[in-house]
Amino acid sequence: MIDLILTQTLNGLASASSLFLVASGLSIIFGVTRIVNFAHGSLYMLGAYLAWTLVSSFGAAEPLGFWGGVLLAALLVGLLGVVIEVLVLRRIYQAPELFQLLATFGVVLMLQDLTLATWGPEDKLGPRAPGLKSFVILFDNRFPTYELFLIAVGPLVLLILWLLFQKTRWGTLVRAATQDREMVGALGVNQRLLFTSVFAFGSMLAGLGGALQLPREAVNLHMDLSMISEVFVVVVVGGLGSVTGAYLAAVLIGILHAFGILIFPKITLVLVFLVMAVVLVVKPYGLMGKAPIGGARGHGPAEPLLLPADKLTKLAGLIALLLLVLAPLVAPDHILLTLTELVIFALFAASLHFMMGPGGMASFGHAAYFGLGAYGAALAVKWLGASMEPALIFAPFLAGIAGVVFGWFCVRLSGVYLAMLTLAFAQIAWATAFQWVELTGGDNGILGVWPSAWAVSKTGFYYLTLGVCVFSILALRLTIFSPLGYALRAGRDNPLRAEAIGLDVMRIQWVAFAVAAFAAGIAGALFAFFKGSVFPTYMAIPRSVDALLMVLLGGVQTVAGPVIGAFAYAGLSEQLMKATMYWRFGLGLSIVLLVILFPRGLVGASLLLRERWTRQPEPAARLAAEGGR
Amino acid sequence: MNAVPQLQAAVPAAAQDPVLVVRDLQKSFGGVRAVDGVSFSVQAGTMLALIGPNGAGKTTCFNMLNGQLRPDGGEVLLAGRPITGMKPRVVWRMGVGRTFQITATFTSMTVRENVQMALISHAGGIWSPFGRARDRHVEAADALLAQVGMLEQAERACGVLAYGDLKRVELAVALANQPRLLLMDEPTAGMAPRERIELMALTADIAAAKGIAVLFTEHDMDVVFTHSDSVIVLDRGRLIAHGTAEEVRRDPNVRAVYLGSGATSGGH
Amino acid sequence: MTIDRRSLLAGASAGAALIAAPALVRAQGAGPIKVGEINSYTAQPAFLKPYRQGWELALEQINAAGGALGRKIETIFRDDGGKPEDAVRHAGDLINAEKVDLLSGGFLSNVGLAIADFAAQNKRLYVASEPLSDAVVWAKGNRYTFRLRPSTYMQAAMLVEEAAKLPAKKWALVAPNYEYGQSGVKWFKELLKKAKPDVEFVAEQFPALGRIDAGATVQALEASKPDAIFNVTFGADLSNFVRQGNTRGLFEGRAVVSMLTGEPEYLDPLGAEAPVGWIVTGYPHADIQTPEHVKFRDAYKAKFNDYPRLGSVVGFDTMNSIAAGLAKAGSTDNEKLVDAMKGLKFPSAFGQAEYRAIDHQSTLGAFVGKTAVKDGKGVMVDWRYADGAKYLPSDAEVKTLRPAG
Known about the structure:
The structure holds 3 protein chains of 3 kinds. By secondary structure, chain A is mainly alpha-helical. In chain A, 72% of the residues lie in helices and 3% in strands.
């Protein structure tokens, strides 16, 4: 038994090193640029693919060929980091918080198709490392020498990073920027160069992490996304920006995996996210993280005023609604199907916007409530024998109650930490749906969730959806303009001031969280009856990302944004998926271009345009922040 | 403990009960005594300045009064009722308005909406999901804005206001709950000299007219000596002097402290 | 005889339709017959690229020979991205906008089940080419859904036959943590226990799909000291498992029985590190010399300059079975087509197979053999063709498994 424990510890440490390499890069990038780099997993994957190609062509048997290939692959990925930073990210540092996330997600999609096109669909099993092909006997078990090597790599890289940060000017700057971004600007440092170099360095670490996996894992097209979610956990558990924390967290997660499969072989999916949730609840900034200086709010410009729609906008909205109402008269069935889906997504996006825009709480896990709404409906049909109407009413409450419970924990955090906790809860909900086969049917889902007879026709269901969604979206909109919505924005704008005028910011945010969950639940329930079936994919990460993309694309500060964003994004991806097998590249490219062209979102951009047209811009008065100390 | 009666004696309207009474306030951070046994009180309608060199414990002291920090020991009484360790929003509900060293307003709202928020909150209407917030308490908000001279800018966004104007907005917001006590942390920091005089004169007028007690910290000695009815001086967490501006100015302890630090006026 | 009756029926129905609705017949007869093919092309390209090529080969051959019912067959390919809800959207769009005559495809089980349920709701034929879940034809089976590939149950049954012959008593199991892995393990345990009551199962590992922690998993299996191992992992999980297992000696002196591992999709990436002596189901493409297969393989190589994978066979056979169904139905009328599919005998690269009338499962089989390494590549040796018809439960059992009848 003791042998097994010791061996599993070593196994955990070996996995930890791989995780750490990738996580440290992500953490450093976040620390300095405040970018949550979704493409970090893709860089890791590219490191592995490039190493496979280079090592094969240099000759894998020769130590020089192998290690040269690995290092060159890491450098090339670093170079790619430069390209991404200069071409894309540099243009959008001034955009609102999390907008860069959108761009990096576009990069993820593009790299997926580029990798497929370059290396083909088959997995590549790389060569073993020369000199480290065999094993040693440890604790009566054979243990691969390469794993021993990896165990050493983690602390070694940690040491190198430490020296780099303590002993070089560049490292000092990185540390300073991580602690206080405003300061670096004040120090007269070439900020552009610093950001580019940091991004390149972080990318290189990811590439190295991928390249070093070559003797250990088959290189495949799914490496990017399976790594990124794990690495997010490591970085957040360790504390964003803390390299030492990342190592500790990597060890924690690695060991947890190694022993988790002994004790709970079936819930490995959820174990890491449970740990992340616990860590964030107990230590809101991770094991080694510090509360950000200067508040959690990002570096974007002040949020714009919230003005009620003027006549022109109202007219446009009314016409759009009228078109939607009249659509069944002229539109063929397949257009109606598309419209139904878009309308549901519009509500889903609007619900996320409610907490994200006025509430300032970005969620990486909003699909949990969409999915819980869908499951609520399906479970009511399957287990209670309910028909559509009561199921539609019951379902949002399941989502809403989950929102109340999860929200209670989430509103205690802010910024990226809050977002990561929502992700953890979403993964827990997803894993529950996935694993609790007796109740939910597991990944095979629940089938036969079809509407009542009166709504079974495409037109019937479309009107049901349109009615419910328009009502819900309008209700959300009214709430945003109500005292409650203003209080929510007050808490976002300035929590200190909000508390000082008697607002219980946390409780207001909690209510908003629950409302957003409830509304997402409505959308999910409609979606379940629309599709006729429910699957765990409804609450998987990609759906949460979809919601984020819709909101950000539309414009997070505008009330109409999420609706427009939902139509634009879902419509675009749908058409692209139909048009080409390379739809991921097309969608990724579109996202990147939209982000660069419209850094305030589609609606934000059109508002800005209209403002420029109609009146002189407000003279650039000094901002509050400048007038301070 | 003898500080309290002495200070009260220096205040003209001594017959009234003080609005704010602070007794033996204590706070340590990691073994360092940031505030060490501070006691004082403020009368309605008067302005009390809290001064001291950097690191003297002014902000710590302030934050214990407004609820942002919980004291390790001691007592804070507002009109005779204990508010020690209560949360900021509860302290506010009991009648304490405040302004911040770095102005804190809702940048995505107009000047009027900022005041309206405080009024809505004061009226207990914050949880209503119906009706438009911007239609509520318009007249009351405009009255407050008129008082601080910001009415003509009521429709502008707080995010684009000049700094001095923001301070005025904050003052209007702080007055929205008809406070008994106004806490102002460095109210004139970052302002031009003329603006400072104007703002503090305005504050003093309002305080006198409405019988509000004002406690403020300040770096600018001109402001302190012109606008305070009395002054207390903190150094390394202890109260070292109290009295009228003139008394404090002559106090040898105070002179020693300020000569040491050399700071007499201006922000930092 | 059947041919005579079929063409007679076709002629009769065509005649009836001609009288009843001449416009309809003209409209039908004018364009090609459309098949809406939905699959996880981008999410599972390793299997589905060969699949699509196999499909296109069959389509080309069929159309060159005049198509079906005198009309060309056309395919509209759609990518579901691995999401069942997107598959359902495509299904709706294909039927309503593209006016396809039938649906086909599905790699992931949940995608297959979603389309099957949609097909039943919309009363449209769905030929599920690939999803292995037993539920597709049994628990959730319906009138409109037919499945080509041998199911999880059948694969397990084929392997149990071999496993029961082994002296091993203590078995350890490893499977990806989702429905396919779970039911693979379930059937294997159930059937092996029935065949050999004295076996015991000493360890079960369920690594997350695509995220196996191979070192730790191998160690956990090793710790249970089994006599033999049953594996259901595939793809990258399999490669990582094999590499760690080889280095750590997990497979030494132990029999390993492994599902799908003999398929070129999963065996080829392992190269020279392919395991030796594992009992597997798979597809020894280079060694099958039956006339049907040689013809298929030669044509495939000529067209794509590559050898076929199992996916190629599945794509090829699915298309061929659809063409056969159309010919038998003599019409694109959906209900007639569904009736024709029941008990339809169709040519496959592995010889003739049949969609059973009782549960709509085809009798297409798989090859059972042992793995070996030849010229630095994994191959199957000592293989035999296991006809799917022989590895299905009795009709009485099927009736209880399939409520839809």
